[in-house]
């Protein structure tokens, strides 16, 4: 992508070096005479050419590449770090200079020196202060309205910033948006009608920083640092409907910039969208019944699952296939031959039992990789892939019905699940295929990925020493089968010249081609439930958190939200319990969570969403604690000492595999 090359203007002479500036600043601090420092700031911030003269590494070099902005970053940092400690008149001088230069540079195409000036001005710490927001907004608008080729340069320059400076830019923009939405002093800003472009401009500049962050591996800051929690308090459904109606056209919506919307807010959007779809489908069922003069039945408002424990998978598959039109209704589960209303516990038990059965190694659908502690799709060919569709439906129902599943898929699975995020209208379009690398393979089969990386970096003769071809082998039911990675692959040797292609084709074969039918069934199952445009707002990592919960544990938050039955929170047994649990290492805390809830992860809404309960178990204190995972309930005997409680609790939570479900 190339911007039109404009002649660079001749820069004014700027003799000051960083050392000169620092010496002047030190002298001013001790003598109180700030004239030299004032003159420097006055000249430097007076115009775009002066900014370049001061901070360009070499005034005679054009620096027209995306790789090097040509700016002396250390000097820029030193000048900005000193600025906030200078007298007020100097700080005002800088702002006046910026106003003049922004007004002056408004017309005509941009040179690379102009882009450098924008890049420097954006880092000004004065823009943390709300009194400068009018100037800041104009700077953001000019950057936001640059042509795409200019944005391309800025993105690549942003990614070269230090983590500290990059994070400051992001936080400053997020704060600007928050305070424009909810000003502490509304009179400080122009009326919202006169500055409706403020937030769209800031969001566009944030998107450049987000793009820059995604180009760096590992990213400069976590993607969650772009979340703006203030947006949790606005009418998100209005934002969503605006985006649905107008897309990315002239009507602004935060949904155009989903990276700023927190996972909690996205979950609300998905749930509300789901609820609206549920209500609309249930209403249609009701209308159909009434129009046929039939008596409405409350059961028609739900997805009613009737299953036998002894035939759990086949019954579930039959029910979901028969009731395909009801998938978006609220889920209710009944176990045949058992009394009991489903108040949520039976639904959770159905999920737990089904997941446990389907993912069991003997079942053959998924392979568990011990090195990476995750499941992956079995590549064995079969006549019917409907059970993979069932797993997809289960995941979709879990998101729809706010159930956290104890599933361990690698991140690459969620990337494939969003490829594309909406089912394509053309049924011949491939689904679940995404670009994959050895990094993705490493998350599933680290040893194989390591071997392929060594092949890429091998310094000897690959063809003679490895003696490989573009043919790979897989064992299926005890029989070794061969597959060509490209036509005639068995006749093409792997060499130093073509090894990159070999590795790419091999990884693509393992993660895409060899499991295409299995994953496509899984993809269609998930999207048959979660057919919502809201999925387009999600990153793969966020889909994983919606399905499986977050790995971040906060046991203090769990303590604050725990309910008690038969105990009071001041009882000695309960005080012992929290002393012990808060002192546990992370692995034991995770085991406790898994023992009591069926998963060692936390729902999107945090620990409070677990509705965790501790009940008094009036049995002998020789007994171990018991858990009702379907209700997130721990039954605790009234142990008389902290030592006894700790010992029994550790035994209970460490040996519960296969027994924890009640």
Short description:
With 662 residues, the protein is of the alpha/beta class.
Explained architecture:
The chain has helices spanning 18-31, 35-44, 48-55, 73-83, 88-104, 112-121, 133-144, 148-158, 163-181, 198-215, 236-246, 263-291, 312-322, 345-358, 386-400, 411-417, 438-442, 446-457, 462-466, 499-511, 516-529, 540-548, 555-561, 572-583, 586-597, 642-654, and strands at 302-307, 330-335, 366-369, 374-377, 471-476, 479-484, 563-565, 613-616, 626-628, 633-636. It has 662 residues and is of the alpha/beta class. Among the domains are: 9-118, no CATH class; 555-655, Hect, E3 ligase catalytic domain (Hect, E3 ligase catalytic fold). The strands form 4 sheets. Strands 7-8-10-9 form a 4-stranded mixed β-sheet, covered by helices on one side. Strands 1-2 form a two-stranded parallel sheet. It has a two-stranded antiparallel ribbon with strand order 3-4. Helix 1 crosses helix 2. It is globular. The model is unreliable at 658-662 (pLDDT under 50).
